[in-house]
Design a protein that fits this description.
The chain has 320 residues and is of the alpha/beta class. The chain folds into 2 domains: 211 residues, Rossmann fold, CATH 3.40.50; 89 residues, 3-Layer(aba) Sandwich (Rossmann fold). The strands form 2 sheets. Strands 1-2-10-7-8-9 form a 6-stranded mixed sheet, with helices on both faces. Strands 5-4-3-6 form a 4-stranded parallel sheet, with helices on both faces. Helix 8 links the parallel strand 7 and strand 8. It is globular and about 55 Å long.
Length: 320
């Protein structure tokens, strides 16, 4: 039976990665009745730096010497490229063709090789696995205990900086972020509610949690491109952890995601990508009703200016 990361593993992760990651602020929102944990202000623009750093700092010298490979919808690849550059490790990131060009360019700019494998995450995953077979060390985007523990440090910071937190709303894709946060916060206070939020286009973890098994999805283009993709051919940690620790999961639509991105920009002055805005979308749409002690994790801000402009044009302020 797989051993899943717990609060102690998250605390060890924080000790390991503290010198590489930013302790991001928690601020009151004007867009929704909640506080926002701003991982969009993290170095590399998203929470993914935490898990990638924990996994790679824990590697042996032999593992690093073989080089690393990752499969990513963008933000994980950027994080792996950043940490690899700091450690002097050769890195390759495999992407699907659905990953925005701006994210692929950002990965390449950090020094990693980029392989665009095909239109689905499964094809990108297969390309990465072929490089593992050639000797590279795999840095999984979510289903790895060290990656999960690294992402869980977000939850530690929330509980320390906002101890009155009663509910955390967290973007949910492969489940590394939400399961890591849940392991941390429920290890501190089991009564804190953890809610996962996914886009309604191909929500693999949402459907897999409901079915109690891995469910394949058809990938579709979505504003929340950072949440796109399936769970892969096998899953050892995040599905079981999400089913055990996430209190409920909800879906939001493309229109609701766009409205949240626009509100965060106009009202709170934040540049937030679609994946990072789904928690705010859940509150704005009523998928999650307001409640005291609510903190929303804004997981990333890596959206191009053109894409954000298109969202703002599609969601004008009243009177515009």
């Amino acid at each position: 039976m797989a051993v899943h990361p717990d609060l102690d593993a998250v605390r060890r992760a924080r000790s390991r990665i503290d010198h590489l990651v930013r302790r991001t602020p928690i601020v009151a929102s004007s867009a929704v009745p909640a506080s926002l944990k701003l991982e969009c202000l993290q170095d590399t623009g998203a929470f993914k730096l935490r898990g990638a750093a924990n996994r790679m700092l824990a590697m042996s010298e032999a593992e690093r010497a073989r080089g690393v490979v990752a499969v990513s919808s963008g933000n994980h690849g950027k994080a792996v490229a950043r940490v690899a550059g700091l450690l002097g490790v050769d890195a390759v990131v495999c992407l699907s063709s659905r990953v925005p060009e701006a994210k692929a360019a950002a990965i390449a700019a950090l020094g990693a090789g980029v392989v665009v494998a095909g239109p689905t995450q499964d094809e990108a995953d297969a390309a990465a696995r072929s490089l593992v077979a050639e000797g590279r060390t795999f840095v999984h985007p979510f289903d790895d205990p060290l990656v999960i523990a690294g992402q869980g440090t977000v939850g530690l910071e929330v509980m320390e900086d906002a101890p009155a937190t009663r509910r955390l709303i967290v973007p949910m894709s492969g489940g590394g972020l939400v399961s890591g946060i849940a392991a941390a916060v429920k290890g501190i206070d089991p009564a804190v509610e953890v809610i996962g939020v996914s886009q309604d286009r191909g929500p693999a973890m949402f459907l897999s949690m409901r079915a109690g098994r891995l469910v394949d999805v058809v990938e579709e283009d979505t504003l929340a491109d950072g949440l796109a993709g399936g769970l892969g051919p096998e899953n050892h940690h995040t599905l079981a952890m999400c089913r055990a620790l996430v209190d409920r999961a909800v879906l939001v639509s493309e229109d609701e995601i766009g409205a949240a991105m626009a509100a965060l920009h106009r009202t709170d002055g934040l540049v937030v990508e679609g994946a990072g805005a789904v928690g705010v979308a859940a509150l704005m749409s009523g998928a999650v009703p307001p409640g005291p002690g609510t903190v929303v994790v804004v997981s990333g801000g890596n959206v191009s200016a053109d894409a954000l402009d298109a969202v703002l044009a599609a969601h004008p302020e009243p009177g515009e």
